[in-house]
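Continuing the batch. This is chain 6 of the set; chains 1 through 5 are on the previous pages. Same settings as before, nothing changed between runs. Recording input and output for traceability.
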Amino acid sequence: MPALWIAHVTVTDADAYGKYAELAGPAIAKYGGAFIARGGRFVQLEGKERPRNVVAKFPSVEAAVECYNSPEYQEALSHARDASERELMVVETDA
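Output for chain 6:
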């Protein structure tokens, strides 16, 4: 079943986070991920608000987790760790 990779992000260092974004996109695509929302307009109804919200669709939960653990994504993530506060989850979808 397909899965959604959902990230809620507050960027604290735009330059370093830019390097993350440059490397993360190709890594996500390599594992079958495709962005369906990136930083667009949102309405926070509950919980902690983060100004950047990203959703990517993957073929499966396993593909999304494999991407996250891949050397390519971990290299990208090394630029985001000190440049952002973030939450990331993978959720299986019905379609």
